[in-house]
Amino acid sequence: MSENYNQMWTELGLDLKAHEQLLGILGQAYQDIFLAQKNRPEGMKYFDFVMSEVHGLRIKELLDAKKQGRIVVGTFCTFVPEELILAVGGVCVGLCAGAEFGFAEAEKYLPRNTCALIKSIFGFKLGKVCPYIKSVDLLVGENTCDGKKKAYEILGTLHDKLYVMDMPQMKSDDGRSLLKVEYKKFQQKLEAISKRKINIENLKQGISIVNNKRKAVHRLNKLRAANPAPISGLDALLINQVYFYDDPIRYTDAVNKICDELEVRVAKNTGVFPVKTPRILISGCPMAVPNWKIPMIVENAQAVIVGEESCVGERGTQNLVDDSKASIPELMEEITTRYFKIDCAIFTPNPTRLDHILHMVKDYKADGVLHYCLQFCQPYQMESGIVENALEDANIPALRIDTDYSQEDAGQIRTRVEAFIERISR
Ligand code: BJ8
User: Fold this and answer.
1) With a 6 A CB cut-off, is 287 part of the ligand 1 pocket?
2) Could you report the average pLDDT of every consecutive run of 10 residues in the chain (426 residues)?
3) Is the CB of 167 within 6 Å of ligand 1?
4) Using a 6 Å cutoff on CB, does residue 79 contact ligand 1?
5) 304 by DSSP, 3-state: which?
6) Which long-range contacts (CB under 8 A, 24 or more apart) does 247-251 make?
7) Which of 177, 306, 323, 353 is the most core-located residue (most Cβ within 10 A)?
8) Which of 120, 148, 356 to mutate to test the pocket of ligand 1 (most atoms within 8 A of CB)?
9) Which residues are within 8 A (CB) of 250 and not within 5 positions of it... i.e. 6 or more apart?
């Protein structure tokens, strides 16, 4: 970290000792997992810097933005439209929830058999180690899975800035209307706390900024279809994780720069792994920072991850908002249209997710799919059988892994992953 931020963290109410411990563990993990990789693109230096300053400089930027009268909004789900937050001049940050920290504290409020992602939200909050959750003017929950839905009721007693958005469960006309109404209510909430009105200009600008960010990651995705893969799955995942924290314009610029570099690699037929390296698509639950366990195991076993069918990945970033309309109601309609296409497993039925996985296998020339679930995540665990059947029908090898954030099962997962890689290498 470039500066000593102790005073800032103290003022935010962090537990400095616990926080230092967390940063120490993360710093070492980052060194071992990311910096130890070979043939990394030069452009990854930017993302390394962002990660090294994720609790430092970025938090300072958020606090500076607040001093200028801008609101900071924390989110946990890709259904929260960043476009509206930007339109009121706000800053949107996705809160991580990807580490096993403070679980003993979290389990005082949540049943033990709650998914690790939800426990992590509580662990970071209760352990006083997350400067983001301490900086927000609004924390947005959403009624997606039952676990999150009920957990927000409890989180609301611990955090006074929580706002919960209702969510449809079916892709019906009524479901779409519900989402539209919820986005309208969210717009009003944002306008009230920011004291700024959404108008055509700022809304179009918000849409354009987020569309550009998505276009940049679409460009990155396309480049990953090349063989040899020009970037590791770990680095590509990191870029997808930083998507949620960084300033969106600066991020877009950095992703486009790395894409320029990767284009040269593709033209020269060079990559991070040899041409015959088995190619794997990951599908399932989102992998929030610093959840790197599965990709690390896969790539250490000499396979390359070429895509993520995940909310920290293509499920979260596919599709743009049509910004050609000339009125706020029409633009709000287009925002609803774009977000309503997200094929999260909370929807029943959810056939477009299957289509998307099959397309991704084809587009990225994957040899197999690793279906990744967090234990106790009912929506994705329930869907994993449906996904597996669809892949079997299409003759695509699949491996189902259910895990959590601990390292206890790492050895067992490694053995299964290595056997799978051997199977798809033949
Ligand atoms: S749109 S995937 S980000 S809800 S892992 S908490 S589902 S029990 S994260 Fe998600 Fe939005 Fe859907 Fe995407 Fe529940 Fe499962 Fe836990 Fe999960």
Assistant:
1) no
2) 89 96 94 96 98 96 98 98 98 92 96 97 94 96 97 96 98 98 98 98 98 98 98 98 97 98 98 96 97 98 98 98 96 98 98 98 98 98 97 98 97 98 92
3) no
4) yes
5) strand
6) 247/61, 247/91, 248/82, 248/86, 248/92, 248/209, 248/210, 248/212, 248/213, 249/209, 249/212, 251/213, 251/216
7) 306
8) 148
9) none
Do 217 and 231 meet the contact criterion of CB atoms below 8 Å apart?
A: no
Instruction: Provide the whole-model pTM.
Output: 0.97
CB 332 within 8 A of CB 322: no
Here the tokens at position 124 are 């970071």
**Do 15 and 126 touch, CB atoms closer than 8 A?**
no
Ordered alpha helix ranges (H), 301-408: 314-317, 328-340, 351-363, 378-393
**Whether the Cβ atoms of residue 85 and residue 190 lie closer than 8 Å to each other:** yes
Beta partners for residue 138, in sequence order: 73
Which two tokens mark 248? 């969106």
Which atom of ligand 1 lies nearest, measured to the CA of 315?
Answer: 13
Sheet holding 91-94: strands in order across? 91-94, 72-75, 138-142, 162-165
Give the ligand 1 atom nearest the CA of 342. 1
Q: How far apart are CA 335 and CA 347, in angstroms?
A: 18
- Contact (Cβ atoms closer than 8 angstroms) between residue 176 and residue 70: no
The set of residues, in sequence order, having a beta carbon less than 8 Å from that of 259 and lying 6+ positions away, is 216, 219, 220, 223
Instruction: Note every long-range contact of 19-22, with CB atoms under 8 Å and residues 24 or more positions apart, other chains counting.
Output: 19/55, 19/128, 19/129, 22/99, 22/101, 22/127, 22/129
